[in-house]
């Protein structure tokens, strides 16, 4: 796949995936189109040699894998499906001062200031009781620009450009209407009706998130950049998804996109949970074979990397300051915040070099804290040799992030050809 087609597909995937639920649904459709068979964790698996399979958990995490049978040297690619956002509280409606607004919680390490004065909408999962008295879940996406978080005018805050802070409880409530007759239950029923669910007897719960309605797009004189919400980490999800869809069934490869990375991965569908281990043990139910497979395989933990910010270059170690459109980044940390070691680095660099793909190295400034990824969590839980890599990004955790238009395609070529 050439870079233009790759990036056009990426833009569409970003726009169609406002929540981890939607991202997982879209990846599942892609896997099915590529010949993967869906498995159910609640049923016995009958895996066939030469088959391709995928399985989801909580509607928000997904694993896809080939099953060649004889080969056990898997390339595993790990990413995460969640991104920082504003999540709706269970009882969200606040009616005061002439408007209807929603109470929200900040999910993950969110940059709050960019959320002001944006046209935002709402999407996620709703659980309800159907006409047969059975609990069902459905994904909704309002799509319409239904809310905004207005800034306080500078006339009322003369220090706004010097020391502005944001109170997560009081300052970031999106406003929706001046009609105080607004009924939240009716609003949810209207959204269910839009997708053909007309007889919900009871609305029990929801997991809904606000998102920016501005579409993903190219930016730059020569389309140098891609700007979008949720590049962290749908960028890596897209790369991993396309990579495994592009290899033959006799190539041992696995892709996992886990939820809840932005809040620590400690959940049934997060990297700290049992999803990957459960899947691998069902693929290799003999313990000796399982250990042989784990120790013969390698995990590429793919997450975004901090590109050097041209307006804040001092925030980087100048010898380890990645540039956008200059190649994939290998992320290294002496304290194991990244799982990279010299052996996994050598394997990755050798493969990239053989394919003519550039690679950069990132180390955080020694006097600054370092974020982490699913890499160390997976390496610890599974015991698999792991490398942390990323795609250079600016404005990470903002409502709109920026990445180079070359780098994701470069990582795709490395992963697709890794076993060849």
UniProtKB/TrEMBL annotation:
Gene3D superfamilies for this protein: Aminopeptidase i, Domain 2, Zn peptidases
Cofactor(s) the protein needs: Zn(2+)
Any GO BP: proteolysis
This protein's record includes keyword Heme: no
EC number(s) reported in the record: 3.4.11.-
Single Gene Ontology MF annotation: aminopeptidase activity
Keywords associated with the record: Aminopeptidase, Hydrolase, Metal-binding, Metalloprotease, Protease, Zinc
GO cellular component term, pick one: cytoplasm
Pfam families attached to this UniProt entry: Peptidase_M18
Protein origin, superkingdom: Bacteria
Entry keyword Zinc: yes
Record InterPro entries: Peptidase_M18, Peptidase_M18_dom2
PANTHER family: ASPARTYL AMINOPEPTIDASE
Family membership noted in the UniProt record: Belongs to the peptidase M18 family.
Name of this protein: M18 family aminopeptidase
Species per Swiss-Prot/TrEMBL record: Sulfurimonas paralvinellae
Lineage: Bacteria, Pseudomonadati, Campylobacterota, Epsilonproteobacteria, Campylobacterales
């Amino acid at each position: 796949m050439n870079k233009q087609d790759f990036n056009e597909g990426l833009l569409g995937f970003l726009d169609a995936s406002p929540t981890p639920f939607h991202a997982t649904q879209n990846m599942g459709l892609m896997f099915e189109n590529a010949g993967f068979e869906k498995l159910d964790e609640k049923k016995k698996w009958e895996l066939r040699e030469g088959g391709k399979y995928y399985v989801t958990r909580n509607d928000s995490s997904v694993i896809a894998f080939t099953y060649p049978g004889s080969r056990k040297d898997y390339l595993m690619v790990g990413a995460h499906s969640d991104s920082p956002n504003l999540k709706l509280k269970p009882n969200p409606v606040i009616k005061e001062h002439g408007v209807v607004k929603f109470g929200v919680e900040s999910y993950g390490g969110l940059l709050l200031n960019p959320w002001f004065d944006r046209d935002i909408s709402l999407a996620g999962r709703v659980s309800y009781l159907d006409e047969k008295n059975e609990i069902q879940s459905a994904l909704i996406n309002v799509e319409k620009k239904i809310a905004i978080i207005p800034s306080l005018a500078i006339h009322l805050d003369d220090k706004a450009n010097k020391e502005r802070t944001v109170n997560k409880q009081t300052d970031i409530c999106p406003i929706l209407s001046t009609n105080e007759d607004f009924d939240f239950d009716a609003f949810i029923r209207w959204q269910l009706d839009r997708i053909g669910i007309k007889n919900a007897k009871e609305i029990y719960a929801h997991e809904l998130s606000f998102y920016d309605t501005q579409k993903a797009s190219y930016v730059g004189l020569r389309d140098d950049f891609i700007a979008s919400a949720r590049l962290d980490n749908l960028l890596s999800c897209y790369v991993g998804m396309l990579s495994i869809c592009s290899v033959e069934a006799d190539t041992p490869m696995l892709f996992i996109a886990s939820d809840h990375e932005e809040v620590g991965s400690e959940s049934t569908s997060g990297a700290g949970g049992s999803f990957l281990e459960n899947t691998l043990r069902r693929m290799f139910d003999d313990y000796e074979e399982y250990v042989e497979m784990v120790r013969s395989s390698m995990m590429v933990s793919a997450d975004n990397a901090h590109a050097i910010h041209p307006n804040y270059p001092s925030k980087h170690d100048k010898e380890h300051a990645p540039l956008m459109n200059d190649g994939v980044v290998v992320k290294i940390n002496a304290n194991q915040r990244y799982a990279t070691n010299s052996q996994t680095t050598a394997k990755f660099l050798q493969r990239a070099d053989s394919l003519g793909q550039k690679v950069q190295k990132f180390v955080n400034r020694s006097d600054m804290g370092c974020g982490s990824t699913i890499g160390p969590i997976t390496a610890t839980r599974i015991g698999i040799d792991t490398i942390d890599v990323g795609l250079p990004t600016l404005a990470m955790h903002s409502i709109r992030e920026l990445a180079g238009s070359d780098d994701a395609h470069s990582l795709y070529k490395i992963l697709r050809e890794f076993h060849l």
